[in-house]
């Protein structure tokens, strides 16, 4: 395993737009689970959803792309990402 493969990030993702919370929140949960990302949704409203996601950077990028395309009943205007921490696993631990 390379060092890049063992890095994990924790990021806050703020999704802004015309959001149908009742369908989008379960969709977000399913998408994060499919990608194997840990996630916690901390705020939901018809215009903003905030969540924290943890995992490899490439998978968080995929989560952002999926959310930007989202289900048909939402319109995502923008997604803001804020790094909260980065963890690197040491070989042999």
From TrEMBL:
Organism for this UniProt entry: Rhizobium leguminosarum
InterPro entries: Acylphosphatase-like_dom_sf
Name the record gives this protein: Acylphosphatase
